[in-house]
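Example S7 (structure tokens).
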């Protein structure tokens, strides 16, 4: 049993690692890519932004396709699309080809392959404690990819070329496709649901504009616009007016409202929908989604704070910055590796609470290090390590709480929703920190201290959400599964 579980988890964990890596490693190669492709830094940043937008917009539709095409098929198809995108990016000679390969195809591939990772673990391991062990492996891979992406990307770019980073991704994806042959996913019984095309368009548009708005806050801020907002040479929003962030987010909110009205209308008619409204009526699941959002917000936001601080104040390069962040990565991996042991001894709710508390302590230890512009870099180690331990502890537990709150027939939809809110949290974390750093009228090191203090506030909000999760076991919150659904997948 252990050997078969290992054969299944290894390709899933590697796939999660490579997707997390792709989301962060590009930041250290922006200048090198711009020079090589004869473009500017803004063009490469646009490619990175489009990758995030594509993945965020298509995550829910990609998850729904697992119910139609099958989980393993979506996983492998996502890997193929991702690999083709990586190959095109590797061979790119101009920015448009990089955008097609990296931003579009790798983004689409990620949206197809990430949801099946969590669904396959959920249906393969029915009890929460066993599931926690393997979610710990997956979460550790996600945290390692996100945290080590800048370090690995910096080393590869400095030693070889930015193209080698994409070549590495292609090789790893090819290896994962070979390993994926050992993944078993019995065919779904009964009629397959129809794909909700109008719902897909509306949800994708809504998430696209919401995430786009959040990302624009780095440039224009959340309050008054810091500069003119032009479109095709015409200034739409002048400097000093309302930030375009709110206009873009409002457009996204309108699309999402339209989406929910569409879902309600189709459900009344008995039609298949992209995301059933019942997914928002489970208290445990909703609180778990809230903690997930905040966890990724503080993970990406805090690492962004420390990275910018080390590069702007200490003038570290990407490799040194990645090395300083290593204690946080080690903390995430250590906590994720212990997820199985933690789950056997403590309820998932308790682990979420403990994780937020430990993370808060780590942030408190980091604040003095940021406040002193000149200081020993060793002072960063305790805070970063505790931060990583806290994040690693609660990431696994929150995913487990959300996925375990629903029967197997709902795993496709809840997995997509879970991954979408995580993407929103990541986008909001870096956007908020970037806006604070650019908008606070203080020296850089003090502005970054304010940004980290804001991350601490969000951590405490997450702690409150964790406390609000009911004390009853997660399984008690699961709706009764119809007998017809009980035979959909057997292990």
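Recovered sequence:
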């Amino acid at each position: 049993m252990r050997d078969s579980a290992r054969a299944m988890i290894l390709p899933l964990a590697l796939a999660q690692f490579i997707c997390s890596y792709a989301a962060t490693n590009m930041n250290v190669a922006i200048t090198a890519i711009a020079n090589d492709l004869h473009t500017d830094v803004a063009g490469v940043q646009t490619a990175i932004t489009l990758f995030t937008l594509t993945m965020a917009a298509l995550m829910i539709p990609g998850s729904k396709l697992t119910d139609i095409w099958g989980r393993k098929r979506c996983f492998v198809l996502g890997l193929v699309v991702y690999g083709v995108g990586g190959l095109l990016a590797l061979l790119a000679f101009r920015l448009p080809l990089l955008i097609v390969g990296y931003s579009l195809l790798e983004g689409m591939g990620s949206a197809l392959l990430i949801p099946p990772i969590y669904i396959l673990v959920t249906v393969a391991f029915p009890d929460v404690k066993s599931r926690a062990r393997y979610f710990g492996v997956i979460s550790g891979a996600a945290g390692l990819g996100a945290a080590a992406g800048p370090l690995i990307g910096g080393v590869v770019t400095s030693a070889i070329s930015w193209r080698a980073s994409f070549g590495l991704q292609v090789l790893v994806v090819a290896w994962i496709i070979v390993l994926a042959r050992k993944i078993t996913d019995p065919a779904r019984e009964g009629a397959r649901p129809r794909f909700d095309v109008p719902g897909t368009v509306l949800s994708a548009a809504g998430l696209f504009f919401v995430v786009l708005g959040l990302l624009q806050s780095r440039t224009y801020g959340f309050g008054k616009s810091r500069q003119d907002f032009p479109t095709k040479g015409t200034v739409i929003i002048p400097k000093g007016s309302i930030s375009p962030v709110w206009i873009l987010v409002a457009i996204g909110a309108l699309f999402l409202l339209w989406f929910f009205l569409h879902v309600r209308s189709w459900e009344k008619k008995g039609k298949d929908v992209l995301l059933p409204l019942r997914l928002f009526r489970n208290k445990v699941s909703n609180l778990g989604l809230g903690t997930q959002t905040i966890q990724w917000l503080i993970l990406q936001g805090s690492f962004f704070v420390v990275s910018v601080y080390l590069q702007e104040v200490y003038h570290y390069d990407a490799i040194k910055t990645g090395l300083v962040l290593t204690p946080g990565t080690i903390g995430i991996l250590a906590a994720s590796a212990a997820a199985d042991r933690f789950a056997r001894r403590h309820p998932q709710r308790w682990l979420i609470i403990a994780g937020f508390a430990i993370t808060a302590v780590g942030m408190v230890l980091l604040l003095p290090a940021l406040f002193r512009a000149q200081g020993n870099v060793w002072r960063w180690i305790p805070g970063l390590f505790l931060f990583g331990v806290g994040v690693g502890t609660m990431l696994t537990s929150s995913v487990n709480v959300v996925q375990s709150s629903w029967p197997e027939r709902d795993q496709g939809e809840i997995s997509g929703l879970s991954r979408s809110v995580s993407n929103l949290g990541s986008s909001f974390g870096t956007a908020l920190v970037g806006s604070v750093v650019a908008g606070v009228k203080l020296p850089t090191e003090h502005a970054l201290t304010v940004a980290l203090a804001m991350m601490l506030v969000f951590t405490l909000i997450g702690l409150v959400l964790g406390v609000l999760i009911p004390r009853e076991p997660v399984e008690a919150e699961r709706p009764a599964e119809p007998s017809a659904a009980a035979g959909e997948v057997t292990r």
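Notes on this example. The longest helix spans residues 128-159.
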